[in-house]
Amino acid sequence: MGSTPPMKSMKPGIMRPMRVLGVETSCDETGVAVYDTEAGLLAHVLHSQVDLHARYGGVVPEIASRDHLRRLLPLVREALEAAGIERADAVAYTAGPGLVGALMVGGGLANGLALAWGCPVVPVHHMEGHLLAPLLEPDPPEPPFLALLVSGGHTLLVGVDGLGRYRRLGTTLDDAVGEAFDKAAKMLGLGYPGGPALAALAREGDERAIDLPRPMLNRPGLDFSFSGLKTALMLEVRRAEAAGRLDEERANIAAAFQRAAIDTLVGRTLKAAREERASRIVVAGGVGANALLRAELAASFDGRVYYPRPEFCTDNGAMIALAGALRLEDAGPPGPILARARWPLEALAPPGALGVAA
């Protein structure tokens, strides 16, 4: 399972190999992994709560927290066994942004393990984990690069000059793109989670059959908006329902929505790349697995586009273990749990400066 260790410009500032246990509980995935600063990723395990939340049409925070409590310790044992170790040299956990109750579960376990093992603990920013996930691949990107972070909770364009040196270039003014996909899927009667279901249905439709808007695409700046596109979709669904044609048109509507959303992401990203003179783009987060997004960026960007493998696009412990390994200079003794519902990525500092908790 080993992967390429981080490139020289992002290696942790330590003198001996360290094995870091990573714990991810920001939302509805429970992820645990072990990362070795010399050998790379040793093990990662993941439990998804999709089936628990599907009946409610979205994540229920209390249910998520309780399931993390049930799953974490068995997953830690499984990851340690897979890595061939009995304990880690440091424990990293997602400290935010995310659901506070779920974050507290992961942070509590991480601090408890660190106390029992006599090792330091590292709070990790969830979106920094996503941003660094492509470093788990054999040919990782070197900074500087442009990052497009797209998930159910975030849509961000970030200029990355180095570890902890982030400039927010654009963000969403309303829904994140993953949230917009889920809401669009719900309007089309596709259930939860909606994003993958909508993308699958879109493959059966004609994206040119319906004209939907590309919000903000021709406006100044690099921010996104998906509320107008969502409203336009709702009107199309109502029109088709009134005509008794929704079953016939559902795939076309899904295809048109996906095309409009991806056109918006790609258009803004290419504009940012021109302004930043970027030759490398990193795409991470759950929506980064979308096949149309990948195809359009590959066809329209002259430089190199980097992605984590699909299993590391969604929330996972491997990206947290890696981020913790890169931030070992910020590690400290077990103590108060850091859990932040909101946490701007650009508030971070390089390791050893102000620390991840700044």
Q: What distinguishing features does this structure have?
A:
358 residues; alpha/beta; Nucleotidyltransferase, domain 5; 2 domains; five-stranded mixed β-sheet
Describe the protein.
With about 350 residues, this protein is an alpha/beta fold. The chain has 2 domains: about 10-135 and about 310-345, ATPase, nucleotide binding domain (Nucleotidyltransferase, domain 5, 2-Layer Sandwich), CATH 3.30.420; about 145-305, Nucleotidyltransferase, domain 5. It is built from 10 helices and 10 strands. The protein has helices spanning about 50-55, 60-85, 100-115, 125-130, 175-185, 195-200, 225-240, 245-275, 290-300, 315-325; strands at about 20-25, 30-35, 40-50, 90-95, 120-125, 145-150, 155-160, 165-170, 280-285, 305. The strands form 2 sheets. Strands 3-2-1-4-5 form a 5-stranded mixed beta sheet, sandwiched between helices. Strand 2 and strand 3 (about 40-50) form a beta hairpin. Helix 4 crosses helix 10 and helix 5 (about 175-185) runs parallel beside helix 7 (about 225-240). It is globular and about 65 Å long. The mean pLDDT is about 95.
